[in-house]
TrEMBL record:
<dbReference type="GO" id="GO:0000052">
    <property type="term" value="P:citrulline metabolic process"/>
</dbReference>
<dbReference type="GO" id="GO:0006525">
    <property type="term" value="P:arginine metabolic process"/>
</dbReference>
<protein>
    <submittedName>
        <fullName>Amidinotransferase</fullName>
    </submittedName>
</protein>
<keyword id="KW-0808">Transferase</keyword>
<dbReference type="GO" id="GO:0045429">
    <property type="term" value="P:positive regulation of nitric oxide biosynthetic process"/>
</dbReference>
<dbReference type="GO" id="GO:0016740">
    <property type="term" value="F:transferase activity"/>
</dbReference>
<dbReference type="GO" id="GO:0016597">
    <property type="term" value="F:amino acid binding"/>
</dbReference>
<dbReference type="GO" id="GO:0016403">
    <property type="term" value="F:dimethylargininase activity"/>
</dbReference>
<feature type="active site" description="Nucleophile">
    <location>
        <position position="269"/>
    </location>
</feature>
<keyword id="KW-0378">Hydrolase</keyword>
<dbReference type="InterPro" id="IPR033199">
    <property type="entry name" value="DDAH-like"/>
</dbReference>
<feature type="active site" description="Proton donor">
    <location>
        <position position="169"/>
    </location>
</feature>
<comment type="similarity">
    <text>Belongs to the DDAH family.</text>
</comment>
């Protein structure tokens, strides 16, 4: 069994103080079903505190009334080597979030902040492997945003096409378990059926040792996980995936995100990683 080594991470999160499902912009959202902002806040706090117990730093941005999806901070920026590429949302209901996050970065000392010209939903569709940026398209982020990200962030970008509307962001179908180092390749987990045939072939060629998730894993947002290289934060229901990860030397940490999932989000959706 491979020995997995955790690395300390820095995250930006937004409390779901104004959480609601007042509209439907993905297949998981149903405004006719009741949601509890109080329960969402309890689950979010447990997720935040889990990161802190694992030794990570969590910073918080102030939520804004009228922006119930602002809790899904991952969609609002991509940060690599201290460079920040902001977001440009496809849904008008979320458009105002981008400016609040841009302001947070500039107020916290980030000078290299670029706002995109193309629709770009940030870490929702971008996954950093330590060597390249995996970039999703098909439902939200424009294909042209991939070239823009390469130019702004100065890293190679690989485009992947999503084909199942339930997995409308890359982070609902794939996440990085451990980043590449000088001696080891990146390790990922993904749900093959969420991708086009060509993208599946690319992933199989680049990541032959990937953990392949089942439909049950994907449907409970198991691929919306967050890993520090050893500890992997997953939704409570992702038991099949958790078992596979244990065999590969990881330590699954299961959390309840059932209320947040009603808006189509999970652990990663709530978590923007700041890579300095």
């Amino acid at each position: 069994m491979t020995t997995r080594v955790p690395t300390t991470r820095r995250y930006l999160m937004c409390p779901p103080r104004f959480f609601a499902v007042d509209y439907a912009i993905n297949p998981w959202m149903d405004p006719t079903q009741p949601v509890s902002a109080e329960r969402a806040m309890t689950q979010w706090r447990e997720l935040r505190d889990t990161y802190r117990r694992l030794g990570h730093t969590v910073e918080e941005i102030e939520p804004q009334p009228g922006l119930p999806d602002m809790v899904f901070a991952a969609n609002s920026g991509t940060v690599i080597d201290g460079r920040v590429l902001g977001a440009r949302f496809r849904a008008p209901q979320r458009a105002a979030e981008a400016e609040h996050f841009r302001r947070w970065f500039t107020e916290h000392g980030y000078r290299d902040v670029v706002m995109p010209t193309c629709v770009n939903e940030a870490e929702g569709d971008f996954a950093w492997t330590g060597r390249m940026l995996l970039a999703g398209t098909g439902f939200r982020t424009d294909p042209a945003a991939h070239a823009e990200a390469q130019e702004v962030l100065g890293v190679p970008v690989l485009s992947l096409r999503l084909t199942d509307p339930r997995y409308y962001h890359l982070d609902t179908a794939l996440f990085v378990l451990s980043e590449a180092t000088d001696t080891t390749p990146a390790h990922i987990a993904y749900y093959p059926e969420a991708f086009s045939a060509g993208s599946r072939r690319v992933l199989a060629r680049l990541f032959p040792d990937a953990v392949l998730a089942t439909a049950a894993d994907a449907e409970c947002f198991g691929l919306n996980g967050v890993s520090d290289g050893r500890n992997v934060v997953l939704p409570l229901e992702a038991t099949d995936l958790a078992e596979r990860l244990v065999v590969r030397g990881y330590e699954p940490v299961l959390v309840d995100i059932s209320e947040l999932r009603k808006a189509g989000g999970g652990p990663k959706c709530c978590t923007l990683e700041i890579r300095k």
